[in-house]
Specification:
Elements: E1 3-10, H1 15-29, E2 36-41, E3 50-51, E4 62-67, H2 72-78, E5 84-88, H3 102-121, E6 124-127, H4 130-139, E7 145-146, E8 172-176, H5 185-199, E9 204-208, H6 216-228, E10 235-238, H7 243-252, E11 255-258, H8 267-274, E12 279-282, H9 287-291, E13 296-298, H10 303-315, H11 317-337, H12 341-348
Length: 349
């Protein structure tokens, strides 16, 4: 029996691709073989995943489909009578992308419609967060279960410097995530303008992430804002980088700030915890669930007020260390909660 995993796209570094790789590793430890397939696979990533045109599904094989957007993959999979298992990562609401990329907006709308097809044709369903699980239940999924994301932080060695022992010359803010309208990097830039107007230019903000070429207009808008707000020296947008450079950037930063307004989970929140960065995030989507009782959530984008609240983290070491302490507890609890066993149960059923 092979357990083959499928998704619309594969790009090393994004949350779904990381999950597929980790699930493949964990399944291999249980003696299961299988490959990863996607409609869109970047040439640099083809040692990890293959195009769906190359798949050879045998009658006893199990299909695991990671859903987040409409693609040809679902229609391709429906032609096979094999056992099918959904892993739901959420579909971003289409309205975020309508001003920038109508085709992508259409694919998101179709992706949400696809859920009803999946509901009627898949034997088992999992969601990677309770937020996502609630959506499936509302649509009418039966017996859907929670399957927390399997995070592999062993890819970074443990020799990173604990934040409380760092010497900060000035605040270095970081956000990691796709350059996309739902991630609201434009609000991060507005925050930077407020910070500069109150505390001056001794700070940096880096936004690290891949931008879909079809959404270049959103990236152009961000770059225009940086120029118009006179933030060229303080704010940098960094394209996707490899794991070594990502680790370096995490280590050089001293606070993770998220303005995202839709997340089905948000892996970088936990990555930031791993690197001992206080996390401050807008309370939207699954973000409160992912943070648990740790980090700092805010419910209003009052940038001047937020600037002053965040400044307390830098000025009060006890406050900062308390945030990091509770984040460490939460991260440890989360990592211990993940298991491949629920998936193995339905594979064997």
């Amino acid at each position: 029996m092979n357990i083959h995993q499928f998704s619309a796209g594969f790009q090393l570094g994004d949350a779904i691709s990381q999950e597929m790789l980790e699930m493949k590793r964990l399944l291999a430890k249980e003696g299961y073989t299988g490959k990863i397939y996607a409609e869109n696979v970047y040439s640099n990533d083809r040692k990890y995943a293959e195009k769906i045109s190359k798949v050879n599904i045998k009658p006893q094989d199990v299909i695991v489909y990671h859903h987040s957007i409409h693609s040809k993959v679902l229609d391709f999979l429906l032609q096979f009578p094999n056992k099918k298992i959904l892993i739901y990562h959420n579909v971003t609401p289409e309205n975020f992308f309508e001003p920038y990329d109508l085709r992508f907006s259409y694919l998101l709308r179709r992706g949400r419609e696809d859920l009803e097809i999946i509901r009627d044709h898949f034997q088992h369903s999992f969601a990677v967060s309770s937020f996502n699980l609630a959506e499936l239940i509302q649509i009418g999924f039966k017996h859907v279960r929670l399957l927390p994301l399997h995070l592999n932080f062993q890819k970074w060695d443990h020799n990173h410097i604990e934040s409380k022992h760092k010497t900060f010359v000035f605040p270095s803010f970081l956000f990691v995530g796709r350059i996309a309208p739902n991630k609201c990097q434009d609000d991060l830039i507005r925050f930077a303008r407020s910070w500069k107007s109150i505390y001056g230019n001794q700070f940096s903000l880096r936004m690290l992430g891949f931008c879909n070429p079809d959404q270049q207009s959103y990236l152009d808008e961000l770059n225009f804002m940086i120029t118009q707000f006179d933030l060229q020296n303080e704010v940098k947008i960094i394209p996707y980088v490899d794991e070594a450079m990502l680790k370096k950037i995490y280590l050089e930063s001293n606070l993770f700030l998220s303005m995202s307004e839709h997340e089905g989970f948000c892996v970088p929140l936990l990555e930031a915890m791993h690197f001992q960065l206080p996390v401050v995030a807008y309370a939207a989507g699954a973000v409160p669930e992912t943070l648990g009782n740790s980090g700092i959530l805010f419910h209003s984008k009052d940038f001047n007020q937020l600037v002053r609240e965040i400044d307390k983290i830098f000025k009060n070491n006890d406050y900062r260390n308390s945030i990091i302490y509770h984040q460490n507890l939460h991260l440890d609890t989360y990592l211990k909660s993940t298991s491949i066993l629920p998936l193995l149960e339905v594979i064997k059923s």
